[in-house]
Amino acid sequence: MFDPDPDLIAALRRARRIVASTGAGISAESGLSTFRDAQTGLWAKYKPEDLATPQAFQRNPRMVWEWYEWRRSIVATVEPNPGHAALARIETARPDFLLVTQNVDGLHAKAGSRNLVELHGNIRRSICFDQRHPAESWTRGEDIPPHCAQCGSLLRPDVVWFGETLPPDALRRAQQAAADCDLFLSIGTSTLVYPAAELPYIAGSNGATVVEINPDATPLSRLANFVVREKAGIALPAIAAAMLGKP
Ligand code: NAD
Description:
The protein is α/β, with parallel strands linked by helices. 36% of the residues lie in helices and 16% in strands. A hairpin with a 5-residue loop joins β4 (121-128) and β5 (134-135). The longest helix has 15 residues, at 61-75. Residues 23-29, 32, 34-35, 102-105, 120, 188-190, 192-193, 213-216, 218, 231-233 line the site of nicotinamide-adenine-dinucleotide.
């Protein structure tokens, strides 16, 4: 039984603007492994840095597309867990709540979060390589990858690859929200991947209370005002219940 720190609950109740930032750890309890752990079976001999880059796609678009089809097939079988649900519940009670995620699995949206910034895109969507035209759907036919219906160039997943910049509007919105919030929750992220990793530091340097929820220590742990050494799927439902009452 996890009992949240009463001082943390008081700070959450007091905060006018709350921002949460999540990483791969929040989806671990849904059964999704982290990027590096995902290198199993057929793909074990490939490093993410060799597959998740524009150069890899240009070299071998079929291989990269098929790697993402494999990852999509895994994502399609998993469901949001109580951690995702608790964040959606906090948003319902506190419409000023903003959720920023590095995850590309779409599980926050599936759990009902709407005030959501997907900093690294979403593996369930595709865009075309040349013009970034969004592709709502595509046929799994002879062409691998399929072609863009608008310009004919190859489709690729709508995610941020190594060496690519983040969508500027999404990044600006996240940075502004971090600078303006009173309380920042960093959940299930190693805080090693920039620029997402700088968000809690932006919040902290603007006077916000910084909270880390992660079973393991990260570089952020020393700065955080509250450190919750617990899994997100255990900690977040208990925190939401203490903050908002039983669902
Ligand atoms: P990371 O793999 O670097 O770190 C995961 C963190 O989660 C670790 O600090 C770990 O201690 C913690 N963790 C593990 N289980 C947890 C749990 N049950 N509750 C709370 N925390 C838990 O992940 P990152 O910081 O998100 O950075 C990796 C990059 O890889 C990101 O850019 C992300 O886009 C991408 N990625 C996305 C997914 C996804 O969409 N599900 C999965 C893997 C990687």
